[in-house]
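User: Run a structure prediction on this.
Assistant: Running it now.
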Amino acid sequence: MVKNYFRDYFSRFQLFVMILVVMSLNGQEPRVFNTSDFQLLGKVKRCLVITDYGKESFEFDPEGVLTKVTTLYSDTDYDVTYYRYSEGLLKEKRLENYREDSLDRQTSLAHIYRIDTLLNKVVKESVYSYQREFLDQFEYKYDGAGNLMAIIRTTNEGIDDTQISYDTLRGEVTKTIDVNEITERSVRTGEKNEKGQLLRIELEKIYLKGEPYKATESFTDTLGRKIREFKFDYDNGKSSFVKTEEINYEYDEQGFLKAKIQKSDKQESRQEFIYQFDGQTPPNWIKMIITPDNRYTTRRITYYEEDSSKSAEEEN
């Protein structure tokens, strides 16, 4: 069974570049992306994704690590993100925006990372514009076990202090994120045996100005497949969260997402996913159709040859 296909790729892909932008503005723990984050198997060199809203190109090194992302709006308007590494760690990220085939220096950014591991790990991220203007600095602090404990953001306007705490009770771990002493998010994780199946349960609560606002509870099996999730809104009158939606996921025998069923008080909808595959071993899908809307996504995948010097392209 293919382990890495168990998430909803379509939603993940649409949000990926948006996430990169948010990361550059708000500061998220630096991480290394690889082919498994894009539901790709084998020695993939390049994956061009074509949807009804545009094209996205992802490039990887022979080890499967993401090195470049290109978002194409037209032949002359596009964004390019480069990732550079040293000893397996992210050292530099550059977001270059091109308009009418010219680099827009006002909106292009460079992220430089410095890592200190003398005691507990500390990562410093400095953000500059392509006009050499300092914009942001983030300092990520970790404990001895490698857990992120704090993010200190410094700008020309002041300092934002994010503190992250971890509490364990009855085998469940709750991670709480406070920004400038105001709670913004908490995530509680635990396990449950359901009909002989071990599930990982994650309850995420979102706070607005320190007050509970929304929540999502998700159930994932040991193979990484999301089985179902519940969405909640906070009801001030009841002083509790109230369920607003239930989402169930179905998979085929190979482990690919087959259907997504959404239920609310007023309606129920069902989406089904149909795939076409390439001839590689292991196979990757090269077209995904989502019914009943008949939305589709096409992928053109280039692979590294065994000697890593040539590539063979699988066309739709």
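The chain is about 5% helix and 60% strand.
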